[in-house]
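Re: folding output
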Amino acid sequence: MKDRKITKALEKLTVYELNSFRKFLLSPYFNQNEAFVIFFDMLNEAKRTGKDPGQIESRDVWARIYGAESPYNDVKFRKLSSDLFALFEEFITQKELDNDGSEKLRLLMKAYTNRNLSDLFGSLIHHIEYNKKLHQNKNAEHYLNMYNIERAIMDINFHDNTIGRKVEMDKVLNVEEMSYNLDVFFIAEKLRSYCTLLSWNQTFKLNKKIIGIDVILKLAQSPFFKDYPPIAIYYLISVIKSHEGNTEDYYKLKDLLIANLHHFDKKESKDLLDLVIGYCVTLGNKGMPEFEREAFEWYKLGLKNDIIIRDEHISPTTFRNIAFYAIRQGEYDWAETYILDYAQFLDPTVRESNVNFSLARVEMNKKNFKKVIQLLSTTEYKEVFQALLSRTLLLASYFELNERDSLESLLLSFKLYLDREKTYTKQRKLQYYNLIKHTKTLLKINKKEKPKLLKLKQEVENSEAVVIKNWLVEKIESLIIA
């Protein structure tokens, strides 16, 4: 039963959501078939006890629902599974609606209109106006909801006018506010798409364009729209993405994001963080170390505001990157605490490898080389990036501890791994091949052979493709001055 949509869906729910879904299934309004409750309970019990719900046999579910003596009917079971998934979709839709006050008000107004409940319009409009005052600055979707609500209010007032109720037309024709809300949504969403495209163009070496974006950029800077947070934020992101190194606009964006990040939902907040962190990483890689600190601070903000952890999970790449930038800032204690505290959010299948790998990086920078070896030697790394860098850290640790036999054995296996690896290009492999070659050369040179050491140093310094180049030069220099 592993490929059933319902088993995949329930895997992503939190304990709280699973409990809520069960209550949903017990509600006679949504469900009157006890079979769905029994089916769900079997899946939930497996998940709760650490088992894989996908491993439950369809016939076992059938026997629990209909009795062991009832002959199994695969077509009927498939229908049962499909209907339970349909209830799941209805449940999560209801959960989203519960969290979206503006959309809920819009649908309520539509329901009143469709049922001609005109006597209730007054209190509803008052509630809407109060809601608008509470939440003035929102993401782009908020302005679309406000447009729909304003449109509905106007339709209600026109309805009152047609049935003889006196209506002051100058007050109910709220076309200007409707237009503003729709324009803000459109401009902000267009800019958001543009920012995403700029990132894709940079990452995947594309040259895609959006027709009419020049007009949108001009509108975004007009006095009518430039102060709306979703427009201002995405406009500044587009500016710094288009003009790399534009630090003045970056710091404007930073202030604006910090002040308004809470106005965006969790997913969009994560997308915004990814965009700005990507900018900081690019500048940090181009020799502006202050932007490595900026990236680290954004990661910390994301953790503090519960933006980075989604559905109780963190991606392995993000997990490693946060540790990496903490280490780059010399925040070793913070990095170690973070690794151990947030390990629980990694998928169990990759948890050990990513934790050991990140802790080894910390220990490497603290020059605890024996701990590095201990952490890396007992872990198998399936991801090529980790496999290569773990071998690099082991190489440096064996060298620092003068464990020559282990080092020479590693150099052989390291080269063999590179020879067999098929996903990396020759250029990406070259930096590791050069590390192996230069390390072998260094091992053969006696510290008294200064000319050979100087020649090796020059060769390493002139090479553009050498991983941990600074460390290798440092080891050569230490022998030169010995």
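--- second protein (sequence, then structure) ---
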Amino acid sequence: MTDTFENHSQETLEAHLVQVQTLLAKMRLVEELVHRQGGPRQTLVENLVHKQHLAELHRQIEILHPADIAYILEALPLQERRLVWEMVGAENDGEILLEVSDSVRESLIQTMDKAELLAAAESLDTDEIADIAADLPQDVIQELLTSLDVQKRARLQSALSFPEDSVGALMDYEMVTIRVDVTLEVALRYLRRLGELPDQLDKLFVVDHDKLIGVLPLKRLLTTDPEASVAAVMVEDFVKFHPEDEAHEAAQAFERYDLVMAPVVDAQGRLIGRLTVDAVVDYIRESADSDMLSMAGLKEEEDLFSTVWNAAKNRWMWLAINLCTAFVASRVIGAFEGSIEKLAALAALMPIIAGIGGNSGNQTITLIIRGLALGHITPANAKRLVLKELGVAILNGLVWGSVVGVFAWLLYDNPALGGVMALAMLLNLLVAALAGIFIPMTLERVKRDPAIGSSVLLTFVTDSMGFFIFLGLATLLLL
């Protein structure tokens, strides 16, 4: 792997992917032609052609950054992914396993033996090992723990002990500390002796007997008189975290205060690690992906090229729940079969009520989930939020209810039917607003992720209530 990598723009990355895919397709085509030709030296020719293609593929792969290779691996079917994975230098295995998604990582680990997994893990920092530990076989973890020195072993065990969505699971241990009783000149000499500094370093941590008492921003260190003391220049009012803090709260703090890195301290105020912006960005991206999958009813991240069986199992749970809710909605319709037989227009119009209610509810539920995630919704403002959303629902119901009412009147020459449509639209939008508010808020209160299944539950409520309201009003007022 070369130390200099090409431009990392999305266009360049996609071009690399196309080149690899083209090369793999060419490899398959040529080898199939050679195989068909036969001949006394067919096996020898096939081996030579295969080695030539592998060498060309290796040249293409070795110029890429590990993150770019991870992107390519995620976009390839299983067989081609494994072929490309074999072309990756062993020194980059760990970094690539760290970059790929969990599902793809599992498929790569299945192709590696214990020695390869140990070598890949040992090339990573302690916090990085913790990130992939859940996907490693238990015997590899045990052997890895025995091979690490005492400090690294203690750090890895500590990182593994924290919940996945906590600051402790995201922090690393690459810290630069300085004593409070020295001058800036001494601090500068210390940094020069260190040589290589940790990534995302914008401040030094000032300690006194292992207790964190301040931070020294690098810009102050470089622009202040070298004879000044660290105590006189350091910042004593700074953002810090505890390992038990929730990761999403730390992510909000990084965004709010434009942090690059922040210290992590224990209950006694002792410095134990740091949280960096790259770890926070990775967490935000993974959380966003997880929320998107959860709202679609997927239990977990799915490899694009996983087996049909595994992909189907991943989607079954919420499909089963959706099927049950659909049966309930169908029974609501069944209860009004007589009304539908008397006025066939009801069957044509009722999907409009349910559909508009579902769309309106999805708008509300998205805003509520976002507000909960950002911590903007509190008991103090919840009542005003409910009133505001009900006001929006009433206004939309009056405007769009009038539109669909006039449409039904003109279409079926029945003003009473238009009035029922308008009233049903207004009432279902109110139901959708209430469901969009209280479904995620209830899930949040019972300590469940508000994104998981909210859209499925909302669809159930708006469909069932939409059919019930419209058909019920029609039965009372028209028949």
